[in-house]
Amino acid sequence: MSKFLITGLGNVGSEYAHTRHNIGFDVVTAFALKHEGIFKTARLAEVAEVNWRGKIFICIRPTTYMNLSGKALKYWLDREKIPVERSLTIVDDLALPLDKLRLRKSGSHAGHNGLQDIQYILGTDAYPKLRFGLGNNYPKGMQVEFVLSRWHPEEIPLVKLKIEKCVEIIESFATIGIDKTMSLVNNISFKPN
What we know:
This protein has helices at 23-34, 69-80, 113-122, 143-147, 156-175, 178-185; strands at 3-8, 40-42, 45-52, 55-62, 87-93, 101-104, 129-133.
């Protein structure tokens, strides 16, 4: 039975819950909920196991804080004997507009501390990533405040739509593969109904 590691990046603690920077946690939580996975506290992460269509998904929300995400990801890859190409890391991205998602097999950390740590620990940038566009609608010098803030009410319908789409992308990644999934996702501008 093939096994996948789905990692949502974020920070633990109620002050970070549902902030832009924690969108990885929100996506992984939505995926686990849809498939009746329940998170339990385990080593370096909160972990839920999902069985779906003959596949096992180990879903993790690292408890290491964002900047040390690599430690948790590497531990669970090794523990579950999952090859890196069957992992998917979900992360926020300021360089992408709010209406975009981007799936890639590899690529630079682009200054994102969580991805930087994963790349350092794995020794490569060749691991699949799903980037959730945040946009860059903040005043100069206010990047940290922006990513650690919560969504504006008018953004929430689009964010919810994109979370649902991310859940479908995880399913598609595991069933039809990353190449076909990238072609379905990367050029879409998402708009709520």
